[in-house]
Structure formats: structure tokens, C-alpha cells
Amino acid sequence: MRVLGVDPGLTRCGVGVVEGVAGRPLTMLGVGVVRTPADAETGHRLVAIERGIEEWLDEHRPELVAVERVFSQHNVRTVMGTAQASAVAILCASRRGLPVALHTPSEVKAAVTGSGRADKAQVGAMVTRLLRLDAPPKPADAADALALAICHIWRAPAQNRLQQAVAAHRATNQATNQATNRATNQAMTVKGRTA
Fold first, then answer.
1. What does pTM read for this prediction?
2. What is the pLDDT of residues 66-119, one digit of tens each?
3. 68 catalytic residue (yes or no)
4. Catalytic residue status for 58
5. How far is CA 23 from the centre of its chain?
6. Which end of the chain, N or C, is surrounded by fewer C-beta atoms within 10 Å?
7. Catalytic annotation on 144?
């Protein structure tokens, strides 16, 4: 599985591509940051992010895009920019028919370090170790993008099994409800004839 991880941000949008399967060594295919000038208009910045992500999609041809789920922060301006950059990444992937997975920061930290409260230095150190890199990717946004891709590769098999179990459960419930409805309708029909 080849995954493009996107750590959304309006000034620095981390991007990283990881290939592999759960339980086997993973390979980093690329890592970087799409940057936009802080003094540019928001629309121009979003276009620059779109172009950057499109270039990564063209070059690396991922099967899936993993994006950090935007969470509430105290700084509304920061969360708005993050949400806008996140939407651009989702749009770029969806336009190509690529599935998108959203992971919270604590899910990513827990998957990569074993602790949902790990700091950026711990995430960077584990990404370096897991991908057998010489040094942690800089800036931290780049390491976070790789961590998102790793998280998804490791969590995907369990998520797929869970989705299959939920689908099977729904199908069973639907079949049971249909059978119950048929039986109720037949009983009502018989009762109507005898009345």
C-alpha cells in the first residue's frame, strides 16, 4: 500500500509518502513541505497548496491519502487555516477517486510511538527509526506527514476488518427486520381475513 500523508497547514503543509504493509518494514518514498507566504491572500495560499499536493499525487501515485483530522484549538485562526488546507488535500484526492482517511493527532502519536500524548520530538524520532532514516525529517510538519502515512498503513487492516464486521452486522439486522416485517404483515393479513 502506498499512502500520501498530509499534515495540513496554511503556512507549512507537510507531505510524505510511505509504502508497505502492516507487519513488514516500511519505505519512505518522499517527504517535504508545501509552503505558502504568510502575507499572501488566503485564496492564493490555498491554490498554492492545491498545486503542491497535485504535484505530489502526480509524482508518487498513492493509493490512498491520509490527512490529519482537524481538532478544536484555542486559536480559531490557526484551526481555520488548518481546516482549509485539510479540505484542499481531501478535494485533490477525491477529484482523482482516491480514498481519504482522517486520523486524529492522538491516533497518529499512539500508532507511531505507543503514546497518544507523545511530543513532536518523540514522533520524529520514531518516524526516523521506523523508516530507517539517517535523521528526523525537518520541519516537524514533514515528520508528522510520514507519521500519518505510517499510522494508516498499520491501522488499515484492523479498520477494514471492523468495517466488514459492521457491514455484516447491518446486513444481518436488515435481513432480520425484513423477515419480521413480512411475518407481521402476513399475520395482519390473516387477522384481517378472519375478522
1. 0.81
2. 999 987 667 787 889 999 999 999 999 999 999 999 999 999 999 999 999 999
3. yes
4. no
5. 19
6. C
7. no
